[in-house]
Amino acid sequence: MRVRGALLTIAALGLAATPGSAAPRQPSGPWHVDYDTAQCVATRDYGTQAKALALVLKPSPNNSVMRILLIRRGSSEVNQMPALLRFDEFRKSTNMLTYSDEKNHFSVVAINVPMAEFKSHIGARYLSISGGGYDDSFALSDLPSLVAELDKCVFDLQQFWNIGEPYKSRIAKPAEPIQPLSRLFSAGDYPGIALTQRQQGRVTMTFLVGEQGEVADCTVDSTSGIAALDTMSCYVISKRARFQPALGPNGKPVRSAHTSTVVWRIAP
């Protein structure tokens, strides 16, 4: 992996307001790309020292989903609500999840977007998110360069964790859960918000398994379209799953990735 905390310095470009709308927020700093050992994260500040606000992009290890997060100081109730995501004139109806990062005292808005769809809009001038009383726009610049940098980071991540066909020969025996993953879930794990709205769905995740059998990170590869179901799937796996680690050709534990699908259904 590259050195953690690599900085992609790109000057912000000015952007005029679109007709009939308020001017999008302008960035107050460059994109920062964090080359972590278990994830790739791009962050850009749009707030002030007194009122922090950041736009965060996190691609999945398989590069199939882009997670878009808005992070600010404060707290939020855990809630899921319909949302409208816009890249310039393109509009997408989706769901967003709000929650709090209690450790860092942040309020978070999260939306999952299929990577192919996200990349089809990397030339957009602004990104807007609205829903649940939240309505804001962010000026975008140099997304093609940023996405190319994230692609490089994901490539390194795949190499480090032996993900994909090029590294198949490094794993003689795949990681195996100590107990079936389906047993980790209980009826009480069904998110109340999704249960109330009778929402069901299928979530495919990739989680990174370390040499001690621990789950280092979990990312949604195929979203259910229901933010609460996606988030709870990764939460349960990250907190409860333990694995017999993958073994290399020499019989020693190696890092690997495990992909699994969770189907959320409400009994008739």
Fold and architecture overview:
- The chain folds into two domains: 127 residues, Sandwich (Immunoglobulin-like); 98 residues, TolA/TonB C-terminal domain.
- The longest helix is centred in the middle third of the chain and has 18 residues.
- Helix content is 16%, strand content 38%.
- The termini are far apart.
- The protein is of the alpha+beta class.
- The radius of gyration is 19 Å and the shape is globular.
- It has four helices and 16 strands.
Give the topology:
Blueprint: E1 32-35, E2 40-45, E3 53-59, E4 65-73, E5 79-87, E6 90-101, E7 106-114, H1 115-119, E8 126-131, E9 134-139, H2 143-160, E10 176-177, H3 192-196, E11 201-209, E12 215-222, H4 227-240, E13 243-244, E14 246-247, E15 253-254, E16 256-264
Antiparallel strand pairs: 1-2, 2-3, 3-4, 4-7, 5-6, 5-8, 6-7, 8-9, 10-13, 11-12, 11-16, 14-15
Task: List the keywords.
Immunoglobulin-like; 38% strand; three-stranded antiparallel sheet; alpha+beta; 4 helices; 268 residues; TolA/TonB C-terminal domain; 2 domains
Summarize, please.
16% of the residues lie in helices and 38% in strands. It contains four helices and 16 strands. It has a nine-stranded antiparallel beta sheet with strand order 1-2-3-4-7-6-5-8-9. Strands 12-11-16 form a three-stranded antiparallel beta sheet, with helices on one face. It has a two-stranded antiparallel ribbon with strand order 10-13.
List SSEs in N-to-C order. Answer: EEEEEEEHEEHEHEEHEEEE
Radius of gyration: 19 Å
- Classify the secondary structure makeup into a structural class: alpha+beta
Main beta-sheet strand count, sense and barrel state: 9 strands, antiparallel
Distance from first to last alpha carbon? 48 Å
**The named CATH superfamily of the largest domain:** Invasion associated locus B (IalB) protein
Trace the largest sheet across and list its strands. 1-2-3-4-7-6-5-8-9
Stated plainly, the CATH topology of the largest domain is called Immunoglobulin-like
Strand content: 35-45%
Q: Any idea what the CATH architecture of the largest domain is?
A: Sandwich
**Number of structural units classed as domains:** 2
**Low-pLDDT residue spans:** 1-20
CATH class of the largest domain, please?
Mainly Beta
What is the total tally of β strands?
Answer: 16
| Mean pLDDT rating | 89
Overall shape: it is globular
